[in-house]
Amino acid sequence: MGKVVCGISISADGYSAGLNQTEERPFGDDGGDGSGAQLHAWMFDTPEENRVELDQLTDAGAFILGRNMFGPVRGEWDRNWNGWWGENPPYHAPVYVLTHYAREPQPMAGGTTFHFVTDGIESALAQAREAAGDRDIAIMGGANTVNQYLAAGLIEELRLHISPFTMGAGTRLFEGVPPLHLEQVSSRGASLVTHVTYRVLP
Amino acid sequence: MGKVVCGISISADGYSAGLNQTEERPFGDDGGDGSGAQLHAWMFDTPEENRVELDQLTDAGAFILGRNMFGPVRGEWDRNWNGWWGENPPYHAPVYVLTHYAREPQPMAGGTTFHFVTDGIESALAQAREAAGDRDIAIMGGANTVNQYLAAGLIEELRLHISPFTMGAGTRLFEGVPPLHLEQVSSRGASLVTHVTYRVLP
């Protein structure tokens, strides 16, 4: 059976997005133009030295996203929105989107299908586990979603990608999560990032 | 002229101490017995593999401490307290303690003298700089003191020692500090810690 893993890019002060997110500025007040450029510089500016970690991000048999990570539509699905990633999203597997508003599954090119889960994080995980078979299940974010899974004790491995800047405010990883015992599995620095992988101990 | 540096041990969620600190439990609700054992396991359990970082901690010509890091006495100095470190503290240099209550300098064995500074962080830094000569000035903590210096733009190099656990609450590094641009100078993992050094950009 696969593991439940979470990979997330955070600032040195633990934020995965700033305040005041909008469709045009999905990462809000992120210290830049709201595109998350500083947070993800390690992916886009120095991909070769981070190849292992980049490949890991999408190496799962099923994915779980919070609704805010899926897109800017709030409330009813009254507008056509199929994610930030174009026709062929990088998941190539079932993706479970947490929402309070029901919607039919949305198949995309390349094997990705977005499923909309209205009955909570445990249901989403059960569906993802069923779909993933022997492969891992990746909790993709944002931090609010990750925090819910951490608080419920449902994440086994946490892969932090820590970028060299601070946001000062926003959505913070670990906010409101009870204390965790972690085991540092690996840790390495690259030019624009520190990668730390923790095993979450029971 | 020396640099203004800060080395601080934090949990993976950025805390340098928990809630409810007391004399008997100086790190408060730190996930253990209040002694900071998890936070400092890298120092005490695996010193040999962290020798460089340990030596760096006390490699300065003058030190600055917040009053809470110096000790549990609050208000007037109505009781004899000369720090947590015994007769021969590990500083071997002048140490400037931030306080609102005046007190005569306290010489200790081994070259450490505690000076008590009542006129603010900039005054403490000016005095430390004068004393340090060409050597670095180390802002030792706790996080509240570090945050004041960070917010004032007075720290040039930040050395984080990140331990594998979360506290969930307490005194958090970067709390209330406006966004910072950082340059990752170095980053390496050891068994029980990730060491990341940032240069704070203007």
What does this structure look like?
- Chain A has helices spanning 41-44, 51-57, 67-70, 121-132, 143-151; strands at residues 4-11, 15-17, 62-66, 94-98, 106-107, 113-117, 137-141, 157-163, 171-172, 182-190, 193-200.
- The first copy, chain A, has 202 residues and is α/β, with parallel strands linked by helices.
- Chain A has one domain (4-72, 88-200): Dihydrofolate Reductase, subunit A (3-Layer(aba) Sandwich), CATH 3.40.430.10.
- The radius of gyration of chain A is 16 Å and the shape is globular.
- The mean pLDDT of chain A is 96.
- Chains A, B: InterPro entries: DHFR-like_dom_sf (IPR024072), RibDG_C (IPR002734), Riboflavin_Biosynth_HTPR (IPR050765).
- Chains A, B: It comes from Glycomyces rhizosphaerae.
- Chains A, B: Residues 3-188 form the Bacterial bifunctional deaminase-reductase C-terminal domain.
